[in-house]
Inverse folding.
């Protein structure tokens, strides 16, 4: 539903635009989110000699024009505080994003209102009503908001009312917090004061467990379950609130993980670059598909400037593409997931070890089966490869041709190849071509019929496999026959749960 880039001004760069457009062609996202649309480098507001505000939208227009040209709508993050409006000088990140409240709250409202009026003038009311407006970023962290919780709620109120002064159909939400904070409080605040609230948003990363619980023994979550538990918990929290209808948008997440509290790092985390990202993505996305309305990967590309933009081909930066546009294991995982269209006909497999699993989707006469082996505890030795048998249903057991694709080290995950090369910072053309080849998943033809209608699973930790099988019998049958397959698929799922062997 949504993809992120780091900040607005980076979208002036041709390379980031190329990366985002390439992702969009494959994934078909609806929205794009990023920080700092009101940063001073965007030149949105200055003061006239008499002290009144003057607004400029030239840079904003160039960015939004580009997004719409590739069929991406903005999920607009209303921040940071322009220097002309700021009450202080505290900043965040390499590019110095001001995180202070406004000197004059009415001027912030004037900025948001003028911004919304300009968007409607340029893009039309029907278009902008499809956009999403999120107020600020992680205001529960001092690094991102120097004001209090009460100050943030006032900022939210000023923003929401300013948007609705322009048009009551504009969609606004928050609190955009870290670690699922303030959600119920914002819902009740807005309900009591009749303030517009069209969605709730928040952020989470797997390693947040060690921020909350530095000692593993104090965590109430089983190893590897923190992320899934918290997302499910927010689903229950909203359902129990006075606004159970609200969409839930997780507007930041990725696979940043840690072995313990001492190894938590936000700027150099290997688990966004290496093979393990693939299985973690597949596991989390399939487990949470019905738990929220968006899981927004932070971020699309390593053209990303919270610190200086990295210079190395792999730098453990958040992007699913490197600075050269080489896909990481994370991007390949999303490519696999994007192909799981149709309806689920299998969820789970008996005897799978923790972190491993199988899911199948049926679309027309094509069955796609995905299997993964995610590591849940990086403080322990890596587990042994997982082996299993997937017994195909009768309609597919006689298929003589199917494709198998696997994301594994140096075949779908180029990071390990770059490490083996000695981590060269400046790539020769031949080295870049080699890494691009290593970024492509292993692909082979398999013959299920020759194997007795069985798919053989053997996945090392972090690996993901995807089979695509077309039924020789169903391809010739009518649409009506396909619609009558419900009971046979239920029988297959029940049988697999009992017959699978490790």
């Amino acid at each position: 539903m949504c993809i992120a880039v780091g900040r607005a001004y980076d979208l002036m760069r041709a390379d980031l635009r190329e990366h985002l457009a390439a992702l969009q062609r494959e994934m078909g996202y609806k929205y794009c989110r990023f920080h700092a649309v009101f940063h001073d480098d965007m030149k949105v507001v200055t003061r006239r000699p008499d002290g009144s505000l003057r607004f400029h939208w030239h840079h904003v227009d160039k960015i939004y024009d580009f997004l719409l040209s590739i069929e991406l709508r903005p999920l607009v993050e209303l921040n940071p505080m322009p220097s002309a409006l700021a009450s202080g000088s505290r900043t965040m990140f390499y590019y110095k994003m001001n995180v202070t409240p406004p000197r004059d709250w009415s001027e912030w409202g004037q900025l948001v209102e003028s911004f919304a009026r300009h968007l409607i003038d340029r893009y039309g009311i029907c278009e902008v009503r499809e956009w999403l407006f999120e107020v600020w970023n992680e205001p529960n962290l001092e690094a991102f908001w120097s004001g209090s919780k009460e100050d943030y709620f006032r900022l939210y109120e000023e923003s929401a009312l300013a948007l609705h002064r322009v048009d009551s159909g504009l969609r606004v939400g928050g609190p955009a917090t870290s670690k699922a904070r303030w959600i119920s409080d914002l819902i009740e605040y807005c309900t009591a004061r009749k303030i517009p609230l069209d969605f709730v948003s928040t952020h989470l990363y797997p390693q947040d467990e060690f921020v909350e619980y530095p000692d593993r023994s104090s965590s109430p979550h089983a190893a590897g379950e923190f992320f899934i538990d918290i997302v499910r918990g927010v689903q229950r929290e909203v359902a129990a609130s006075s606004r159970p209808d609200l969409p839930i948008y997780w507007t930041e997440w990725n696979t940043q993980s840690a072995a313990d509290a001492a190894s938590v790092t936000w700027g150099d985390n290997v688990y966004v670059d290496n093979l393990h990202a693939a299985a973690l993505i597949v596991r989390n996305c399939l487990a949470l598909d019905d738990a929220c309305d968006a899981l927004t990967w932070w971020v699309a590309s390593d053209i990303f400037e919270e610190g200086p933009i990295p210079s190395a081909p792999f730098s453990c930066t958040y992007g699913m593409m490197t600075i050269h546009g080489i896909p990481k294991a994370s991007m390949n995982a999303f490519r696999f997931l994007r192909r799981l269209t149709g309806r689920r006909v299998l969820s789970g497999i008996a005897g799978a070890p923790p972190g491993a699993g199988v899911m199948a989707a049926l679309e027309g006469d094509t069955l796609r089966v995905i299997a993964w082996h995610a590591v849940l505890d990086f403080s322990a030795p890596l587990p042994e490869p997982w082996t299993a048998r997937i017994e195909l249903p009768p309609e597919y057991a006689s298929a003589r041709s199917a494709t198998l694709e696997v994301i594994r080290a140096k075949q779908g995950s180029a990071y390990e190849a770059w490490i083996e090369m000695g981590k060269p910072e400046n790539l020769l053309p031949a080295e870049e071509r080699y890494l691009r080849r290593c970024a492509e998943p292993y692909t082979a033809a398999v013959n299920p019929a020759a194997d007795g209608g069985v798919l053989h699973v053997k996945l090392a930790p972090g690996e993901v496999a995807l089979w695509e099988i077309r039924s020789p019998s169903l391809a010739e049958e009518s649409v009506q026959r396909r619609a009558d397959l419900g009971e046979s698929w239920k029988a297959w799922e029940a049988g697999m749960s009992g017959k699978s062997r490790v």
In short: The first helix runs from residue 14 to 27. The two ends are 35 Å apart (CA to CA). The chain is about 30% helix and 20% strand.
